[in-house]
Amino acid sequence: LLLAACVTVPPAPQALPAWPERLRQLQSMPQWDLQGRAAAAVGTQGWQANLSWHQGGQDSEIHLAGPLGVGAMALNLNEQGVEINGRDAAAIRDAAAYLAQRLGFTPPFARLRYWLLGVPAPGSSFDLTRNAQERAAHIGQDGWEIDYTEYMRVGADVLPRRLTLRHEAVRVRVAVDRWTAPR
What we know:
about 180 residues, alpha+beta, 11 strands
């Protein structure tokens, strides 16, 4: 009985704002990081990698690495363009073709930064289905279909833990192990 009196009860989760406000908050989130895993299937080919994504304003820093670091790739996306493994896109000639060769498809990185947060990317039309908790269950945008199967608490927030992206013969599954977002 004495020990039970010393146990602190965690505070009840705060209610998230209504969807229009939530959409605005997540689309304008200035900085966040995630650590997780990605697995892609393109036709009969596939790969899996550890995923690290740092979003700082409009700049994205993405690291993909296979088991034991095999096939590691670092991407930096900003207003000037794309750097792949420290070389700018001009040095690679065609970043989209290079990524398609290495990954089997060209990832929609500019939109993916929003989809990872569970919201559609601003600036283009979308279809959205929300779940009972008023979070995205499905987003259809720019030919991609994104399904959200699990969310996780991140401080006072709730962000996606598992999502699947599909586009033609491409299927990408993302499992987030850890989010770091501003308070």
